Protein backbone atom coordinates (compact mmCIF):
# COMPACT_ATOMS: atom_id res chain seq x y z
CA UNK A 1 0.00 0.00 0.00
CA UNK A 2 1.13 3.53 -0.74
CA UNK A 3 1.74 5.59 2.39
CA UNK A 4 1.64 9.36 2.21
CA UNK A 5 4.06 9.97 5.11
CA UNK A 6 6.90 12.44 4.68
CA UNK A 7 7.55 13.38 8.28
CA UNK A 8 9.47 10.46 9.72
CA UNK A 9 8.63 8.47 12.81
CA UNK A 10 5.18 8.35 14.26
CA UNK A 11 3.73 8.19 17.72
CA UNK A 12 1.32 5.40 18.66
CA UNK A 13 -2.18 5.89 17.41
CA UNK A 14 -4.98 6.40 19.93
CA UNK A 15 -7.01 3.33 20.69
CA UNK A 16 -9.94 2.38 18.48
CA UNK A 17 -12.38 3.08 21.34
CA UNK A 18 -11.03 6.59 21.92
CA UNK A 19 -11.21 7.39 18.18
CA UNK A 20 -14.78 6.11 18.02
CA UNK A 21 -15.68 8.25 21.03
CA UNK A 22 -14.07 11.26 19.42
CA UNK A 23 -15.99 10.66 16.18
CA UNK A 24 -19.23 10.31 18.07
CA UNK A 25 -18.63 13.62 19.80
CA UNK A 26 -18.24 15.44 16.49
CA UNK A 27 -21.40 16.72 14.81
CA UNK A 28 -19.81 16.09 11.39
CA UNK A 29 -19.97 12.31 11.71
CA UNK A 30 -22.75 9.84 12.16
CA UNK A 31 -22.68 8.01 15.46
CA UNK A 32 -22.89 4.26 15.61
CA UNK A 33 -23.95 2.23 18.62
CA UNK A 34 -22.54 -1.13 19.48
CA UNK A 35 -24.42 -4.11 20.84
CA UNK A 36 -23.71 -5.25 24.35
CA UNK A 37 -21.71 -8.49 24.61
CA UNK A 38 -23.98 -11.43 24.15
CA UNK A 39 -24.76 -13.18 27.39
CA UNK A 40 -23.85 -16.82 27.78
CA UNK A 41 -26.73 -19.20 27.66
CA UNK A 42 -27.94 -21.03 30.75
CA UNK A 43 -26.23 -24.25 29.80
CA UNK A 44 -22.87 -22.53 29.46
CA UNK A 45 -23.37 -20.66 32.72
CA UNK A 46 -24.43 -23.75 34.58
CA UNK A 47 -21.58 -25.83 33.24
CA UNK A 48 -18.99 -23.15 33.93
CA UNK A 49 -20.33 -22.36 37.38
CA UNK A 50 -20.44 -26.02 38.22
CA UNK A 51 -16.84 -26.41 37.18
CA UNK A 52 -15.67 -23.48 39.29
CA UNK A 53 -17.92 -23.85 42.37
CA UNK A 54 -16.74 -27.25 43.45
CA UNK A 55 -14.88 -27.30 46.72
CA UNK A 56 -11.33 -28.63 46.74
CA UNK A 57 -12.62 -31.63 48.64
CA UNK A 58 -15.01 -32.45 45.80
CA UNK A 59 -12.52 -32.42 42.98
CA UNK A 60 -8.84 -32.87 42.42
CA UNK A 61 -6.45 -30.00 41.82
CA UNK A 62 -6.09 -31.06 38.15
CA UNK A 63 -9.83 -30.82 37.61
CA UNK A 64 -9.89 -27.36 39.16
CA UNK A 65 -7.07 -26.22 36.89
CA UNK A 66 -8.83 -27.64 33.83
CA UNK A 67 -12.05 -25.89 34.80
CA UNK A 68 -10.29 -22.58 35.24
CA UNK A 69 -8.47 -23.06 31.95
CA UNK A 70 -11.72 -23.80 30.15
CA UNK A 71 -13.32 -20.68 31.63
CA UNK A 72 -10.32 -18.59 30.53
CA UNK A 73 -10.57 -19.93 26.99
CA UNK A 74 -14.29 -19.14 26.89
CA UNK A 75 -13.69 -15.55 28.02
CA UNK A 76 -10.82 -15.15 25.56
CA UNK A 77 -13.00 -16.34 22.69
CA UNK A 78 -15.76 -13.93 23.68
CA UNK A 79 -13.22 -11.13 23.82
CA UNK A 80 -11.97 -12.00 20.31
CA UNK A 81 -15.54 -12.08 18.98
CA UNK A 82 -16.24 -8.64 20.43
CA UNK A 83 -13.01 -7.26 18.99
CA UNK A 84 -13.94 -8.64 15.56
CA UNK A 85 -17.37 -7.03 15.80
CA UNK A 86 -15.82 -3.72 16.85
CA UNK A 87 -13.35 -3.87 13.96
CA UNK A 88 -16.11 -4.56 11.41
CA UNK A 89 -18.22 -1.71 12.71
CA UNK A 90 -15.21 0.59 12.67
CA UNK A 91 -14.58 -0.26 9.01
CA UNK A 92 -18.25 0.36 8.21
CA UNK A 93 -18.00 3.74 9.92
CA UNK A 94 -14.88 4.61 7.93
CA UNK A 95 -16.57 3.76 4.63
CA UNK A 96 -19.66 5.72 5.67
CA UNK A 97 -17.49 8.73 6.41
CA UNK A 98 -15.80 8.37 3.04
CA UNK A 99 -19.11 8.21 1.23
CA UNK A 100 -20.62 11.13 3.12
CA UNK A 101 -17.57 13.35 3.46
CA UNK A 102 -15.15 11.98 0.88
CA UNK A 103 -14.83 15.36 -0.76
CA UNK A 104 -13.97 17.66 2.07
CA UNK A 105 -13.11 21.18 1.02
CA UNK A 106 -9.54 22.19 0.15
CA UNK A 107 -7.46 22.81 3.23
CA UNK A 108 -5.47 25.95 3.82
CA UNK A 109 -6.68 27.84 0.73
CA UNK A 110 -5.94 31.49 1.23
CA UNK A 111 -5.32 34.51 -0.98
CA UNK A 112 -2.48 32.93 -2.91
CA UNK A 113 -1.65 33.00 -6.57
CA UNK A 114 -2.67 30.18 -8.88
CA UNK A 115 0.90 28.92 -8.95
CA UNK A 116 0.83 28.35 -5.20
CA UNK A 117 -2.61 26.82 -4.83
CA UNK A 118 -1.78 23.18 -5.30
CA UNK A 119 1.09 22.16 -3.07
CA UNK A 120 1.29 19.28 -0.65
CA UNK A 121 3.00 20.58 2.48
CA UNK A 122 4.37 18.25 5.15
CA UNK A 123 3.88 19.25 8.77
CA UNK A 124 6.74 19.42 11.22
CA UNK A 125 7.78 16.18 12.86
CA UNK A 126 5.48 15.16 15.63
CA UNK A 127 2.32 13.17 16.02
CA UNK A 128 1.58 11.38 12.75
CA UNK A 129 -1.28 9.12 11.72
CA UNK A 130 -0.22 6.74 8.99
CA UNK A 131 -2.81 6.16 6.29
CA UNK A 132 -3.10 3.42 3.69
CA UNK A 133 -5.28 3.55 0.61
CA UNK A 134 -7.24 0.36 0.13
CA UNK A 135 -9.14 -0.45 -3.09
CA UNK A 136 -12.44 -0.54 -1.17
CA UNK A 137 -11.85 3.05 -0.09
CA UNK A 138 -10.36 4.23 -3.37
CA UNK A 139 -13.63 3.37 -5.13
CA UNK A 140 -15.36 6.06 -3.07
CA UNK A 141 -12.83 8.82 -3.72
CA UNK A 142 -11.83 10.99 -6.65
CA UNK A 143 -10.55 8.79 -9.46
CA UNK A 144 -6.74 8.83 -9.73
CA UNK A 145 -6.48 10.68 -6.40
CA UNK A 146 -3.07 9.15 -5.47
CA UNK A 147 -1.62 10.32 -8.78
CA UNK A 148 -2.86 13.88 -8.27
CA UNK A 149 -1.60 14.01 -4.67
CA UNK A 150 1.86 12.81 -5.71
CA UNK A 151 1.94 15.42 -8.46
CA UNK A 152 1.10 18.08 -5.86
CA UNK A 153 3.93 16.85 -3.62
CA UNK A 154 6.44 16.89 -6.47
CA UNK A 155 5.39 20.41 -7.44
CA UNK A 156 5.82 21.59 -3.86
CA UNK A 157 9.45 20.49 -3.82
CA UNK A 158 9.97 21.91 -7.31
CA UNK A 159 8.76 25.35 -6.21
CA UNK A 160 11.04 25.21 -3.18
CA UNK A 161 13.87 24.04 -5.44
CA UNK A 162 14.49 21.20 -3.03
CA UNK A 163 15.84 18.49 -5.30
CA UNK A 164 16.85 16.28 -2.38
CA UNK A 165 13.31 16.23 -1.01
CA UNK A 166 11.82 15.62 -4.45
CA UNK A 167 14.07 12.66 -5.26
CA UNK A 168 13.76 11.35 -1.71
CA UNK A 169 9.98 11.36 -1.91
CA UNK A 170 9.98 9.53 -5.22
CA UNK A 171 12.52 6.98 -3.95
CA UNK A 172 10.29 6.18 -0.97
CA UNK A 173 7.18 5.89 -3.12
CA UNK A 174 9.06 3.88 -5.72
CA UNK A 175 10.25 1.28 -3.19
CA UNK A 176 6.80 0.83 -1.66
CA UNK A 177 5.14 0.47 -5.06
CA UNK A 178 7.74 -1.96 -6.32
CA UNK A 179 7.26 -4.17 -3.26
CA UNK A 180 3.46 -3.99 -3.54
CA UNK A 181 3.46 -4.86 -7.24
CA UNK A 182 5.90 -7.73 -6.79
CA UNK A 183 4.05 -9.36 -3.91
CA UNK A 184 0.43 -8.83 -4.87
CA UNK A 185 -1.83 -11.22 -6.79
CA UNK A 186 -4.97 -9.16 -6.12
CA UNK A 187 -6.98 -7.99 -9.11
CA UNK A 188 -8.26 -4.87 -7.36
CA UNK A 189 -4.92 -3.77 -5.94
CA UNK A 190 -2.99 -4.26 -9.18
CA UNK A 191 -5.74 -2.55 -11.21
CA UNK A 192 -5.73 0.41 -8.81
CA UNK A 193 -1.99 0.99 -9.08
CA UNK A 194 -1.71 0.34 -12.80
CA UNK A 195 -4.34 3.03 -13.36
CA UNK A 196 -2.68 5.50 -10.97
CA UNK A 197 0.87 4.88 -12.15
CA UNK A 198 -0.23 5.43 -15.74
CA UNK A 199 -2.06 8.64 -14.78
CA UNK A 200 0.96 9.94 -12.82
CA UNK A 201 3.24 9.10 -15.75
CA UNK A 202 1.06 11.22 -18.04
CA UNK A 203 0.72 14.04 -15.51
CA UNK A 204 4.51 14.27 -15.38
CA UNK A 205 4.45 14.68 -19.15
CA UNK A 206 1.53 17.11 -19.21
CA UNK A 207 3.00 19.36 -16.49
CA UNK A 208 6.67 18.94 -17.36
CA UNK A 209 8.76 21.96 -18.23
CA UNK A 210 9.83 20.37 -21.52
CA UNK A 211 8.83 22.19 -24.68
CA UNK A 212 10.16 19.67 -27.20
CA UNK A 213 6.97 17.57 -26.87
CA UNK A 214 4.31 20.08 -27.85
CA UNK A 215 1.57 17.41 -27.87
CA UNK A 216 1.90 17.10 -24.10
CA UNK A 217 0.95 20.73 -23.48
CA UNK A 218 -1.12 21.77 -26.48
CA UNK A 219 -4.44 21.10 -24.76
CA UNK A 220 -3.45 22.77 -21.47
CA UNK A 221 -5.30 25.85 -20.30
CA UNK A 222 -3.36 28.89 -19.10
CA UNK A 223 -4.01 27.80 -15.53
CA UNK A 224 -2.68 24.32 -16.23
CA UNK A 225 0.44 25.75 -17.85
CA UNK A 226 1.08 27.81 -14.71
CA UNK A 227 1.37 24.53 -12.78
CA UNK A 228 4.19 23.17 -14.94
CA UNK A 229 7.50 22.24 -13.30
CA UNK A 230 9.94 25.14 -13.34
CA UNK A 231 13.14 24.04 -11.60
CA UNK A 232 13.75 20.36 -12.29
CA UNK A 233 13.54 17.87 -15.12
CA UNK A 234 11.20 15.03 -14.14
CA UNK A 235 12.20 12.82 -17.09
CA UNK A 236 14.25 10.46 -14.84
CA UNK A 237 11.19 9.96 -12.63
CA UNK A 238 9.10 9.17 -15.71
CA UNK A 239 11.68 6.61 -16.82
CA UNK A 240 11.39 4.79 -13.50
CA UNK A 241 7.60 5.04 -13.56
CA UNK A 242 7.59 3.46 -17.01
CA UNK A 243 9.33 0.38 -15.61
CA UNK A 244 6.86 0.15 -12.75
CA UNK A 245 3.92 0.48 -15.17
CA UNK A 246 5.25 -2.38 -17.28
CA UNK A 247 5.82 -4.48 -14.16
CA UNK A 248 2.37 -3.72 -12.75
CA UNK A 249 0.72 -4.54 -16.09
CA UNK A 250 2.61 -7.84 -16.26
CA UNK A 251 1.59 -8.74 -12.69
CA UNK A 252 -2.03 -7.83 -13.36
CA UNK A 253 -2.26 -9.92 -16.52
CA UNK A 254 -0.16 -12.92 -15.47
CA UNK A 255 -0.88 -13.18 -11.75
CA UNK A 256 -4.41 -11.84 -11.37
CA UNK A 257 -6.16 -12.43 -14.72
CA UNK A 258 -4.63 -15.22 -16.80
CA UNK A 259 -5.02 -18.12 -14.34
CA UNK A 260 -8.71 -17.26 -13.89
CA UNK A 261 -9.46 -16.35 -17.50
CA UNK A 262 -7.64 -19.07 -19.49
CA UNK A 263 -9.70 -22.02 -18.17
CA UNK A 264 -12.87 -20.26 -19.34
CA UNK A 265 -11.77 -19.82 -22.97
CA UNK A 266 -12.10 -23.32 -24.44
CA UNK A 267 -15.45 -24.09 -22.71
CA UNK A 268 -16.82 -20.65 -23.53
CA UNK A 269 -15.80 -20.46 -27.20
CA UNK A 270 -15.27 -24.00 -28.47
CA UNK A 271 -17.57 -26.12 -26.32
CA UNK A 272 -20.45 -23.79 -25.54
CA UNK A 273 -23.72 -24.64 -27.29
CA UNK A 274 -26.66 -22.31 -27.40
CA UNK A 275 -29.95 -23.18 -25.75
CA UNK A 276 -31.70 -23.34 -29.15
CA UNK A 277 -29.38 -26.15 -30.26
CA UNK A 278 -30.01 -28.13 -27.11
CA UNK A 279 -33.79 -27.94 -27.50
CA UNK A 280 -33.69 -30.38 -30.39
CA UNK A 281 -31.00 -32.64 -28.90
CA UNK A 282 -31.59 -35.96 -27.21
CA UNK A 283 -31.69 -36.29 -23.46
CA UNK A 284 -28.26 -37.90 -23.28
CA UNK A 285 -26.64 -35.03 -25.20
CA UNK A 286 -28.50 -32.43 -23.17
CA UNK A 287 -27.19 -33.98 -19.98
CA UNK A 288 -23.65 -34.04 -21.32
CA UNK A 289 -23.53 -30.36 -22.25
CA UNK A 290 -25.69 -29.00 -19.43
CA UNK A 291 -22.62 -27.87 -17.50
CA UNK A 292 -21.35 -26.03 -20.59
CA UNK A 293 -24.48 -23.99 -21.28
CA UNK A 294 -23.35 -21.12 -19.06
CA UNK A 295 -19.68 -21.25 -20.01
CA UNK A 296 -19.91 -18.38 -22.51
CA UNK A 297 -21.83 -16.29 -19.99
CA UNK A 298 -19.06 -16.92 -17.44
CA UNK A 299 -16.43 -15.85 -19.97
CA UNK A 300 -18.29 -12.63 -20.71
CA UNK A 301 -18.91 -12.05 -16.99
CA UNK A 302 -15.18 -12.14 -16.22
CA UNK A 303 -14.43 -9.77 -19.08
CA UNK A 304 -17.07 -7.47 -17.65
CA UNK A 305 -15.58 -7.76 -14.15
CA UNK A 306 -12.12 -6.70 -15.32
CA UNK A 307 -13.55 -3.85 -17.41
CA UNK A 308 -15.71 -2.59 -14.54
CA UNK A 309 -12.83 -2.58 -12.06
CA UNK A 310 -10.60 -0.63 -14.41
CA UNK A 311 -13.31 1.96 -15.04
CA UNK A 312 -14.07 2.21 -11.32
CA UNK A 313 -10.47 3.14 -10.52
CA UNK A 314 -10.36 5.71 -13.33
CA UNK A 315 -8.65 3.85 -16.19
CA UNK A 316 -8.53 5.70 -19.50
CA UNK A 317 -8.97 4.19 -22.96
CA UNK A 318 -5.25 3.41 -23.33
CA UNK A 319 -5.22 1.11 -20.29
CA UNK A 320 -8.56 -0.52 -21.04
CA UNK A 321 -7.71 -1.19 -24.69
CA UNK A 322 -4.44 -2.87 -23.78
CA UNK A 323 -5.87 -5.02 -20.97
CA UNK A 324 -9.03 -6.13 -22.78
CA UNK A 325 -7.19 -6.36 -26.11
CA UNK A 326 -4.68 -8.76 -24.58
CA UNK A 327 -7.51 -10.86 -23.15
CA UNK A 328 -9.05 -11.00 -26.64
CA UNK A 329 -5.68 -12.06 -28.05
CA UNK A 330 -5.46 -14.85 -25.49
CA UNK A 331 -8.96 -16.00 -26.44
CA UNK A 332 -8.07 -16.22 -30.10
CA UNK A 333 -4.71 -17.92 -29.55
CA UNK A 334 -5.91 -20.62 -27.19
CA UNK A 335 -9.08 -21.38 -29.15
CA UNK A 336 -7.30 -21.51 -32.53
CA UNK A 337 -4.51 -23.72 -31.18
CA UNK A 338 -7.13 -26.22 -30.00
CA UNK A 339 -9.04 -26.08 -33.29
CA UNK A 340 -5.99 -26.94 -35.38
CA UNK A 341 -5.43 -30.25 -33.58
CA UNK A 342 -8.92 -31.46 -32.62
CA UNK A 343 -10.84 -33.20 -35.37
CA UNK A 344 -14.16 -32.91 -33.54
CA UNK A 345 -13.87 -29.10 -33.77
CA UNK A 346 -13.11 -29.01 -37.49
CA UNK A 347 -16.49 -29.52 -39.11
CA UNK A 348 -19.18 -27.37 -40.65
CA UNK A 349 -21.67 -27.47 -37.76
CA UNK A 350 -19.07 -26.74 -35.11
CA UNK A 351 -17.73 -23.81 -37.14
CA UNK A 352 -21.20 -22.25 -37.11
CA UNK A 353 -21.43 -22.56 -33.33
CA UNK A 354 -17.91 -21.23 -32.72
CA UNK A 355 -18.58 -18.28 -35.02
CA UNK A 356 -21.76 -17.55 -33.05
CA UNK A 357 -19.84 -17.55 -29.76
CA UNK A 358 -17.16 -15.26 -31.17
CA UNK A 359 -19.87 -12.89 -32.42
CA UNK A 360 -21.30 -12.68 -28.89
CA UNK A 361 -17.88 -11.62 -27.62
CA UNK A 362 -17.48 -9.12 -30.44
CA UNK A 363 -20.87 -7.62 -29.63
CA UNK A 364 -19.76 -7.20 -26.02
CA UNK A 365 -16.63 -5.39 -27.19
CA UNK A 366 -18.73 -3.10 -29.38
CA UNK A 367 -21.00 -2.36 -26.44
CA UNK A 368 -18.02 -1.26 -24.35
CA UNK A 369 -16.65 0.99 -27.10
CA UNK A 370 -13.80 -1.43 -27.81
CA UNK A 371 -14.56 -2.31 -31.41
CA UNK A 372 -10.84 -2.11 -32.30
CA UNK A 373 -10.22 -5.10 -30.01
CA UNK A 374 -12.32 -7.23 -32.35
CA UNK A 375 -9.31 -7.42 -34.63
CA UNK A 376 -7.57 -9.75 -32.16
CA UNK A 377 -10.31 -12.33 -32.80
CA UNK A 378 -10.12 -12.16 -36.60
CA UNK A 379 -7.88 -15.27 -37.09
CA UNK A 380 -10.48 -17.34 -35.23
CA UNK A 381 -13.28 -15.89 -37.36
CA UNK A 382 -11.35 -16.75 -40.52
CA UNK A 383 -10.80 -20.32 -39.31
CA UNK A 384 -14.58 -20.69 -39.01
CA UNK A 385 -15.09 -19.28 -42.51
CA UNK A 386 -12.51 -21.75 -43.85
CA UNK A 387 -14.42 -24.69 -42.38
CA UNK A 388 -17.69 -23.42 -43.85
CA UNK A 389 -16.34 -22.84 -47.38
CA UNK A 390 -16.35 -25.19 -50.36
CA UNK A 391 -13.07 -27.09 -50.43
CA UNK A 392 -12.12 -28.01 -53.98
CA UNK A 393 -9.71 -26.87 -56.67
CA UNK A 394 -12.28 -24.51 -58.20
CA UNK A 395 -12.38 -22.53 -54.96
CA UNK A 396 -8.62 -22.45 -54.43
CA UNK A 397 -8.25 -18.70 -54.89
CA UNK A 398 -10.93 -17.99 -52.29
CA UNK A 399 -9.45 -20.40 -49.76
CA UNK A 400 -6.01 -18.84 -50.15
CA UNK A 401 -7.16 -15.26 -50.56
CA UNK A 402 -8.51 -12.55 -48.32
CA UNK A 403 -10.73 -15.00 -46.45
CA UNK A 404 -7.66 -16.52 -44.72
CA UNK A 405 -5.37 -13.47 -44.79
CA UNK A 406 -4.91 -13.48 -40.99
CA UNK A 407 -3.94 -17.16 -40.88
CA UNK A 408 -0.44 -18.46 -41.50
CA UNK A 409 0.03 -21.03 -44.30
CA UNK A 410 0.67 -23.93 -41.92
CA UNK A 411 -2.38 -22.97 -39.84
CA UNK A 412 -4.67 -23.17 -42.88
CA UNK A 413 -3.22 -26.55 -43.85
CA UNK A 414 -3.52 -27.89 -40.28
CA UNK A 415 -7.21 -26.97 -40.10
CA UNK A 416 -7.92 -28.59 -43.48
CA UNK A 417 -5.95 -31.71 -42.49
CA UNK A 418 -8.26 -32.18 -39.50
CA UNK A 419 -11.42 -31.29 -41.37
CA UNK A 420 -14.16 -33.83 -40.66
CA UNK A 421 -16.86 -33.68 -43.36
CA UNK A 422 -20.38 -34.21 -42.09
CA UNK A 423 -22.03 -33.95 -45.50
CA UNK A 424 -22.33 -37.24 -47.38
CA UNK A 425 -21.64 -35.37 -50.61
CA UNK A 426 -18.06 -34.68 -49.47
CA UNK A 427 -15.19 -37.13 -49.31
CA UNK A 428 -14.15 -38.53 -45.97
CA UNK A 429 -11.04 -36.36 -46.06
CA UNK A 430 -9.28 -33.92 -48.33
CA UNK A 431 -6.74 -35.45 -50.71
CA UNK A 432 -2.99 -34.92 -50.12
CA UNK A 433 -2.72 -33.44 -53.61
CA UNK A 434 -5.30 -30.77 -52.75
CA UNK A 435 -3.45 -29.90 -49.52
CA UNK A 436 -0.18 -29.55 -51.46
CA UNK A 437 -1.92 -27.13 -53.85
CA UNK A 438 -3.18 -25.13 -50.87
CA UNK A 439 0.28 -24.98 -49.31
CA UNK A 440 1.89 -23.84 -52.56
CA UNK A 441 -0.72 -21.15 -53.14
CA UNK A 442 -0.38 -19.85 -49.59
CA UNK A 443 3.42 -19.67 -49.84
CA UNK A 444 3.08 -17.63 -53.03
CA UNK A 445 0.70 -15.28 -51.20
CA UNK A 446 3.17 -14.83 -48.34
CA UNK A 447 5.99 -13.96 -50.75
CA UNK A 448 3.80 -11.51 -52.67
CA UNK A 449 2.77 -9.79 -49.41
CA UNK A 450 6.36 -9.58 -48.18
CA UNK A 451 5.55 -11.60 -45.06
CA UNK A 452 8.52 -12.61 -42.88
CA UNK A 453 10.09 -15.91 -43.89
CA UNK A 454 9.46 -17.43 -40.47
CA UNK A 455 5.68 -16.93 -40.93
CA UNK A 456 5.70 -19.68 -43.55
CA UNK A 457 6.47 -22.29 -40.88
CA UNK A 458 4.53 -20.72 -38.01
CA UNK A 459 1.85 -22.98 -36.61
CA UNK A 460 1.17 -22.37 -32.92
CA UNK A 461 -0.04 -18.94 -31.84
CA UNK A 462 1.79 -17.60 -28.78
CA UNK A 463 -1.13 -17.97 -26.42
CA UNK A 464 0.70 -17.05 -23.21
CA UNK A 465 2.93 -14.35 -24.67
CA UNK A 466 2.47 -10.91 -23.10
CA UNK A 467 3.86 -7.88 -24.97
CA UNK A 468 5.06 -5.01 -22.74
CA UNK A 469 2.63 -2.24 -21.90
CA UNK A 470 2.79 0.42 -24.60
CA UNK A 471 3.58 3.73 -22.89
CA UNK A 472 3.93 5.74 -26.12
CA UNK A 473 0.35 7.11 -26.32
CA UNK A 474 -0.23 10.31 -24.37
CA UNK A 475 -3.31 10.65 -22.19
CA UNK A 476 -4.40 14.22 -21.37
CA UNK A 477 -6.13 15.01 -18.07
CA UNK A 478 -8.63 17.85 -17.78
CA UNK A 479 -8.94 17.46 -14.01
CA UNK A 480 -8.84 20.95 -12.39
CA UNK A 481 -5.97 20.70 -9.92
CA UNK A 482 -7.25 23.74 -8.01
CA UNK A 483 -10.21 21.65 -6.79
CA UNK A 484 -7.98 18.96 -5.30
CA UNK A 485 -8.69 18.22 -1.64
CA UNK A 486 -7.64 15.78 1.06
CA UNK A 487 -10.59 13.53 1.94
CA UNK A 488 -11.01 13.37 5.69
CA UNK A 489 -11.43 9.60 5.57
CA UNK A 490 -7.73 9.24 4.74
CA UNK A 491 -6.77 10.89 8.06
CA UNK A 492 -3.91 12.73 6.36
CA UNK A 493 -4.59 16.14 7.88
CA UNK A 494 -2.07 15.47 10.67
CA UNK A 495 0.57 14.54 8.10
CA UNK A 496 0.23 17.18 5.38
CA UNK A 497 -2.04 19.78 3.93
CA UNK A 498 -2.86 21.29 0.57
CA UNK A 499 -2.02 24.97 0.31
TrEMBL record:
Annotated GO MF terms: GTPase binding
One Pfam family of this chain: DIL
Coiled coil: none
Polar residues: bias regions: 8-20
PROSITE patterns per the UniProt record, alphabetical: DILUTE (PS51126)
Region feature (Disordered): 1-20
Record-annotated Dilute domain positions: 171-444
Superkingdom of this protein's organism: Eukaryota
PANTHER family recorded: DILUTE DOMAIN-CONTAINING PROTEIN, DILUTE DOMAIN-CONTAINING PROTEIN YPR089W
Protein name: Dilute domain-containing protein
Amino acid sequence: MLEFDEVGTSTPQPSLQSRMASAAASSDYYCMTFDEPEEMDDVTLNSSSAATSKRPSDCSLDEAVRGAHKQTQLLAQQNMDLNDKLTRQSEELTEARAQLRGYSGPLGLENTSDEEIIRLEAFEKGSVTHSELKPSLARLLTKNLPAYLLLAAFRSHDEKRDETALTGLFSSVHLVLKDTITRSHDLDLLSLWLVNLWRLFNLLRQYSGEDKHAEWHVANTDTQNSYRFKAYDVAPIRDQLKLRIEECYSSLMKKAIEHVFSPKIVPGILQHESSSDLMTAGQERRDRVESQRKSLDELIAFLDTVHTKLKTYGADEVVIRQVIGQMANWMCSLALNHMMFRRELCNFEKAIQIKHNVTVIQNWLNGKGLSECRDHLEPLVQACHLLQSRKDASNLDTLCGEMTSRLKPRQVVAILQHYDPSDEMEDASLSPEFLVQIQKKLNERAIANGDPIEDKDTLIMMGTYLPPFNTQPFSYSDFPLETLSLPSCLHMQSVCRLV
